[in-house]
Every structure is written in C-alpha cells, then in structure tokens.
Amino acid sequence: MRLAAEIAAARAVAGLSRLVGAGAGMTVPGKLLSKLDPGAIDKLAARLPAGTAVVSATNGKTTTSAMAAEILRPRFRLAHNRSGANLVSGVASTLLASDGAELGLLEVDEGALPEVMRRVRPRAVLLGNLFRDQLDRYGELELIAERWRAAVDALPQTTTVVLNADDPQVGSLGSGVHYGLDDPSVARPSLQHAADSKYCVRCGTPYDYAAAYVGHLGDYRCPKCGHARPHLQVAARAIELHGLERAAFDLVTPDGTRRVELALPGLYNVYNALGAAALARALGATLDEIVVGLGRFSAAFGRFERIPVDGKHLLLLLIKNPAGANEAIRTLVEGRPPRVVVVALNDAIADGRDVSWIWDVDFEPLLDGLQRVVATGGRAAELALRFKYGGLDDDAIDVEPELERALDRGLALTSAGEELVVLPTYTAMLAFQREEVLGARSMTRIRVGHLYPDYLNIYADRGNIAVFARRAAWRGHELVVDGLGLDEAIVPGAHDLYYVGGGQDREQFLVAENLAAKAAPLIEAVSAGAALLAVCGGYQLLGRGYRGFHGEDMPGVGLFPLETVAGDTRMIGDVLLETELGPVAGFENHAGRTKLDAGATPLGRVVAGFGNDGESGFEGCRLQRAIGTYLHGPLLPRNPQLADWLLAQALGHRTGGEPTELAPLPDELETQARRVSAERAHARGGRS
Ligand code: GLN
Known about the structure:
The chain is of the alpha/beta class. The protein has three domains: 39-232 and 264-290, UDP-N-acetylmuramoyl-L-alanine:D-glutamate ligase, CATH 3.40.1190.10; 303-441, Protein-Tyrosine Phosphatase, Chain A (Alpha-Beta Complex); 445-683, Class I glutamine amidotransferase (GATase) domain (Rossmann fold, 3-Layer(aba) Sandwich). The protein has 23 helices and 29 strands. The strands form five sheets. It has a nine-stranded mixed sheet, sandwiched between helices. A six-stranded mixed sheet has the order 12-13-17-14-15-16, with helices on both faces. Glutamine (GLN) binds at residues 459, 502-505, 508, 536-537, 566, 589-592.
C-alpha cells in the first residue's frame, strides 16, 4: 500500500474509534498505521517542513513539551501529542492527525525514545532527567541511560541535543546544549534519600554536590576522577519560589538574560521551563518569544490543578515516583502546609505495579501540622502503613479505597474557603478528573430566570441562552433555565442570572405593566448580587420607561438610570463597541433612542454604528452585575467574554462570594465571527 492509502485507512479507523468511544481515537489509528507499514512514521515525520523535536524525561515531559508548544505556536503549526499519548503508536497518531503541520513536537516515553528517534530523525532532542520510575516496566535506570546513550550516539551531526547538565546521567550523554540551575540559594541542604544517580558515572565515587536541587539534580563533581557538571549554556539564576502560586527566574543564555515569570509553582517547574526555553531556542525562537510564551503558560492538564468544589477547592498534584513526589511535597510544605490530605495510590500499569516507591518518598515533611490523611486507591492499605511508620498516629489515618468516598471524607474535613490537597498517582488522577467523581461535586447549578420568553424573544434570544448553557457546561456547571412569564413572581435569591430579550413594541406593551409591577423584587435581586442581561426591548423596559413608535407610554422597572423614546427612523446595522470587557460586536435594530442619566455607566463606546441614541457615542448601560444593551444578532456567541463575565458573576452570586474564575476556552471561532461582524460595522454599519 502507498502511504496515502495507508493514511486514509488509518484515518477511517480514527473516525470509527471516536464513534465507538475508544480512547478518543487517539492511538488506535497509530497502531493500525504502524502495523500496515512500520516505515510510515518515518515518512510522515519526513513530510514536516520544519522537522521534528522530541522531548523525554522521567518527570516533567508533558509539562515541558506543553511549555515549548506555547513558545513555538506563533512561529510554527505544530504536530504536538498534547494528550500525552507518548508511545510509538501515539506518535504515529499525532503525525497522522496533523495535516498541514510544520513542526513535530513530540513528548516521548523514556522506553520508546530510541525507536522514535530512529524513525523520526529529530532535528532537536531535549532530554530532561532520569529518575527511578516504574522499575517493573523499565528495569533499572542504567539500562535506560545506556539505551539513550546509544540512541544519541546514532543521531546525525545536524541534530541539536539539549541536555539537562544537572543530571549526571543525562548531562554526560553527549556534547550539545547544556542547561541547568545556577542558584545555590534554592538548593537543598543534602541529597534526598531517593537521589538516584549519586555515584560518579565514570568511576563510581560518590559525587560532591556544591548544590543539590531536585533529587540528584544539581551541581556535582567527582572528588576522585573530576567528572563534573558540564558548563551551562542556558541557566536559571535569581530563582524566586512563591509558595503554591508561582515562580520566577533569570533566563541566562548566550543571547542575553531575561526574567521569566511562571504561573506554576515549584523548582521542578523551573527545570521544565528552562528545558522548554533551551529547546525552543534551538528551534529558532527568540528570547522575547520564550519569555512571552512561558508567561502565558498555565498548568498542564491536571498535573497541578485547582478545581472548585462546593465552595472549596481541590488542589490536585500528581505523584508518580519518589523524586516527583518529593518535589510536590516540598512545594506544598513551603506554600501552605495542609491539615488534611487525600493520597491516592493505584497500581495499574500506568501507575507502576510495584508500589514500593512510596517508601522512598519523603512524606515526613508533610506530617508536621497534618491532622488527617485519607489513604485511598487500590493500595490504600499499604499507603496507610507508609504514613503509620512515618510517624502518624493510627487514628489520624483513614483507609478508604473508594476514590469517591475518600474525596467526600476529605471534603467533609475541609472548611469552606479552605483548599483540600489531593495527591494521586496517574490513574487515580484521571479518575478524579472524570465527571462521575468530580463533576457531580464541582458542578454548580446556575439558575437562570428568563423573563417573558414567550413575548420577548426576537432576534435570536435563544442563541444567548444556548451560549450560557454550553459555556457553563464546558466548565462542569449546569444551567437551569426557568421561564418567568406573566403569572410567575420574581423571588430575590431564587435566580443567579436574569435574562430579558428583545421585542417589538407590541409585545413590549403586552408585558410592560406586568414587569413594572415586579420592579421591587427585581431591583432587590440585582442589588443582592444577581447578574442580569437585558437586550434591546428588554433593556428599554428596565429603564424608567419607553414611549413606543405610536406614542404608547410603557412603564419601566427603573433599574437602569435611563429613559427611552422611539424616533421616526430605525437604527439598523452592525455595531462595534469598545468596552471594559474588550471589543463587542453585534447588530442593532431599534426605533428607541435611549438617554442615560448623567453619571450612568454605559456598556461601551460606539466605534461604528448607532448605539443608545445615535448621538451620544455610547451604547448600553452597566449597573452592578447587570448589563443592558441594544446589541443582538445574538450578542453572546460572538462575544464570549461577555457571556463568561456574566456567568462568573452568576456563580459568585450562587456561592455567596466573589465572581468565580472560569477556565479559558478555545474561542478561535468566536473571535473570527466577531472580527467579521466588526468589519461589517466598519464597512456598512450605521454611523461610524
Ligand atoms: N421595539 C423596540 C424598538 O424598536 C425594541 C426593538 C428590539 O428589541 N430590537 O426600539
């Protein structure tokens, strides 16, 4: 079969396996492709015009490659296995699915690295560290190091090899770009128990460490044969660690020194960022691109994640081997030492079947101030022993193998506003992130009161509701919409978000009095922190009143400080606004001219279009958590930042506090639609 036909066949399988829900179609097509023709990966990689970079390490390869992707994305279209499918089949699937990509950026499993390197013939290789991990699967550390050495030796001269000099095994793999930490002020006083490569790789004498940073990573020298950390071409100096929140360092390179600010905590993330910087630089990124890319990067897929649950927060930190777990613990203890922790130990293949590693983790620093550990997962009982023999009293240890129940137990012991620390192994982490376990707990029900849906619904108001519902659901929240018609009362506190749509004069007339009679509870609800969005006809009726086209006077609610009178002409066209929440684009179609009272806050300034009255240059009105606007079309699909602002306010109302921060969503389509709408406003909107 020719490559094209093989790709078609494998893609068809990808579609099929997505349909049947088999692992999101990620690795099945790759497996099929490498069965059809083992040379296919080689050919797919060879098609990438900017070549391929591979990243491997025991710890941090997912985060490091995601950081490198963030830096390189503006420069290259990437084929990047972000989902962590890092065996040969995962690499094949990624290459297969990345039509039109320019650069391959592949995270690769330590064991699979030699084969992947042989096949993709990388342009650059980043090797981060080798720690003891899953010895049941990999055998011993030296074995991997030997296989890596042979693979590096077989690379052509043209490949740039970027090596962590602080790891004696990795640093000595060859000549290349060496990176490492150069700030003894953040070093550890001594090597940890679990330090893996503490004997000279040449003569076996214990190294002297001028600085030990993470596990055996540091500034080492052999007192006997002189083998020492290579000279650093790329280094991190002046490192600042800000507890559990963030870190910063000077990135020192031959091209200059720049300060890097990271939204991730811990020294191990400084290593990840430094490796990503050195790799990106080898691939042509400028220092500016590196600093901006790393600054923009935030947590990698739950390896460090905060999840809101019932007014509390879960802080999820992956642990999978002694070195990584020690760093997670060190970061925790230096941040806010927890009172309660849930530790989850599973022993599936992806966790490592051999659970002995927990005895090599330094859990002890955690015990100071720790009142309770909830041990969970398939090997909860052994974990409990580890804590017992670490010095914790029996009655401070709960054994609850069921993850869900363990989580409930932990949450019950956590007070409101406090953070519950959860340390899971790999498969336990995935389980925690699944809807069934977390979804039900972290989900907040946002209650929407939709006023007069049968009357005020022109110009696609249901589009706005659909956007609220989906964007809430994508963050794990549920939107419950109650229609509030003529016969339904408004009960302050019962809804977190009110929505009032647009209407023709006639329908507005039919509801105006009914609505005005509900003014008091609606105003009370908004002053108590409920969010509100009113569009066009609804916006007009939330002011003091609206005189329609035929002179009919309609009473208003008096929530917004404004008044509206219809004019002889309609103001129709695309509108573009500049608002505090960024540019907002929509369509307007109204006869009403709205005058804001002096001192009232408009939603935004009109860049193109008519706005409130075609004269003032302003559009809409804002008051507390309420927004009124003439923009429809509908408003929210192409202005998702408004939807998110309102949802965040509604969640804040629901939980009785500040607006909840919402995870960003990929809004490329929305941005594109807003751009086109903005262009129309400029080109043929009303006044501009
Ligand atoms: N009937 C009102 C007007 O013409 C509002 C129209 C609308 O909701 N689009 O001003």
